[in-house]
């Protein structure tokens, strides 16, 4: 007999929380019963995601079903003052509404495109190329890994695939060549340092591009909804805003980790030769790599809006349409087959769970619950007498370090970002600058733990660091990154006229 499809204890906790909010806690003044009941389901789903009661995609299917069946998104009366004629049809349309969201498909299609980087071997080639140039010192290898991450980030929305699937095997190969092996107790030679650089490159690059990690479009969506679409971050705006603070953070990160956990081996003249040998084994760039590189360039040009800058707005290409162009070219050229696309389970999974979570978050906003909560939070902070600077700082710190309680950046962003951003606006924070800061923190919080994002268990699981070392490095880097984005980002955004 097959086992049940869920973990009983976390599922029971999630269900208990949902029932408690729905049936026991009174609906607060200023909140409609519909909004409160949707909140009950939302809290239950987020609790189930945190407790890993089921895979996030499966939970999302259940969320869609619950919204459709309970009809919580459907008003009792229509615009004409009469009862809604077909509430069941309206409810299922509401439940499926976010499957048409272009931002969700931007990430889904981009994950499919990133399969080409893995399949052709272009990702590994980029990593070994930079090590062949800068790999004569351990610090140089660290910068090579970070630079490889940065190059791949714009077209690799799965930060796990980028840090864990592409860069991590390169990092392990270099460590092994210096006999730095956790099983032999020699991880301190070079492997521990490189593993930490491998990991801590990931949150920074994720903050630098909308297409560098899957939850970023959700951030864009929540910020747009909180400002009635007055602020809708484009790919180019996000990339330009995060460029300078991101580069400064990437420059400092290998140095900080070198100081916190210095490697025993500091000179590595053989690493450059090792990388050259690996490149020699790969041989010249094959047809697939050349096509992948060309498509990579096309995507960057279109995402950055260069045709529109040169020829005018008539030549602008929507970012999601750009992703479809990239995937179409890969399919037409034969670099990817339709079977490759079908096997990219992460992409299809992302489309499903993103759609469900965006749908629930959107209707919480439409039904007024986010506004009510943010006003309550804002008033609470306002009563302390803080100005907007201190209030914004407090909100950002709570938002960032609450990630110790989350194993999913998506769950964290969905649960907290909308209300915290709206509270900041209520307290007088500049909408664009505060939006960019909370967007950056949504990725930077991944530094903290060994379960903070999908990349973490991959690299931590390879055994190069202890739990204590990982958490210490995570906290140190969270402080450094936060300071860089607040100070350098604040000055940069002021220069750009964002506040």
Protein model, in words:
The protein has helices at residues 8-24, 33-50, 56-70, 87-95, 102-120, 122-134, 138-152, 159-177, 191-208, 216-226, 235-260, 269-282, 287-303, 306-311, 319-333, 338-343, 345-366, 369-382, 388-401, 409-426, 431-444, 455-460, 467-495. With 499 residues, it is mostly helical. Among the domains are: 1-96, no CATH class; 102-345, no CATH class. Helix 7 (138-152) packs antiparallel against helix 8 and helix 8 (159-177) packs antiparallel against helix 9. The chain is globular and about 75 Å long. 52% of the residues are buried. The chain crosses the membrane at residues 9-28, 99-118, 238-261, 291-312, 319-338, 350-373, 385-404, 473-493. It is found in: Membrane. It comes from Neisseria elongata.
Shape: globular
Largest sheet: none
> Uncertain spans, ≥5 residues at pLDDT below 50?
none
Mean pLDDT: 89
> Radius of gyration, Cα only, in angstroms?
23 Å
Alpha-carbon distance between the two ends: 61 Å
Helix fraction bin:
over 70%
Summarize the helix and strand pattern as letters: HHHHHHHHHHHHHHHHHHHHHHH
Let me know the number of strands. Answer: 0
Beta percentage is under 5%
């Amino acid at each position: 007999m097959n086992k049940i499809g869920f973990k009983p204890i976390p599922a029971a906790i999630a269900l208990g929380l949902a029932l408690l909010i729905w049936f026991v806690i009174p609906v607060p003044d200023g909140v409609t019963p519909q909004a409160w009941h949707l909140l009950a389901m939302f809290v239950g789903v987020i609790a189930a995601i945190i407790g890993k009661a089921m895979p996030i995609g499966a939970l999302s299917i259940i969320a869609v079903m619950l919204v459709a069946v309970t009809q919580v998104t459907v008003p009792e009366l229509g615009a004409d003052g009469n009862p809604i004629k077909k509430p069941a049809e309206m409810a299922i349309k509401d439940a499926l509404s976010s499957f048409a969201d272009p931002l969700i498909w931007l990430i889904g299609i981009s994950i499919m495109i990133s399969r080409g980087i893995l399949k052709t071997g272009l990702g590994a080639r980029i990593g070994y190329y930079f090590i062949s140039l800068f790999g004569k010192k351990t610090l140089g290898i660290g910068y090579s890994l970070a630079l490889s991450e940065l190059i791949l980030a714009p077209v690799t929305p799965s930060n796990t695939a980028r840090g864990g699937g592409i860069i991590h095997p390169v990092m392990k190969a270099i460590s092994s060549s210096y006999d730095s092996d956790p099983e032999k107790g020699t991880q301190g030679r070079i492997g521990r340092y490189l593993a930490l650089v491998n990991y801590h490159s990931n949150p920074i690059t994720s903050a630098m591009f909308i297409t560098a990690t899957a939850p970023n479009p959700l951030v864009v969506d929540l910020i747009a909804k909180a400002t009635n679409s007055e602020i809708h971050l484009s790919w180019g705006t996000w990339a330009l805003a995060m460029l300078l603070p991101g580069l400064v953070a990437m420059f400092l990160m290998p140095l900080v980790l070198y100081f916190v956990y210095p490697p025993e081996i500091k000179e590595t003249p053989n690493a450059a030769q090792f990388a050259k040998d690996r490149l020699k084994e790969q041989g010249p760039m094959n047809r697939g790599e050349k096509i992948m590189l060309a498509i990579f360039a096309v995507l960057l040009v279109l995402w950055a809006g260069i045709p529109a800058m040169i020829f005018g707005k008539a030549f602008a290409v929507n970012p999601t349409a750009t992703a479809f162009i990239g995937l179409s070219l890969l399919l037409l050229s034969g670099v990817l087959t339709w079977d490759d696309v079908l096997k990219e389970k992460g992409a299809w999974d992302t489309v499903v769970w993103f759609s469900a979570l965006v749908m629930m978050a959107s209707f919480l906003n439409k039904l007024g619950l986010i506004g009510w909560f943010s006003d309550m939070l804002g008033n609470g902070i306002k009563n302390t007498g803080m100005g907007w600077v201190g209030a914004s700082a407090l909100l950002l710190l709570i938002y960032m370090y609450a990630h110790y309680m989350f194993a999913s950046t998506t769950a964290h962003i969905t649960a907290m970002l909308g209300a915290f951003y709206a509270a900041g606006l209520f307290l007088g924070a500049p909408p664009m600058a505060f939006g960019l800061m909370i967007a950056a923190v949504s990725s930077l919080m991944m530094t903290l733990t060994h379960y903070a994002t999908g990349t973490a268990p991959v690299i931590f699981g390879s055994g190069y660091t202890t739990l204590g070392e990982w958490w210490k490095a995570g906290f140190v880097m969270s402080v450094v990154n936060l300071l860089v984005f607040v100070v350098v980002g604040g000055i940069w955004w002021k220069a750009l006229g964002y506040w």
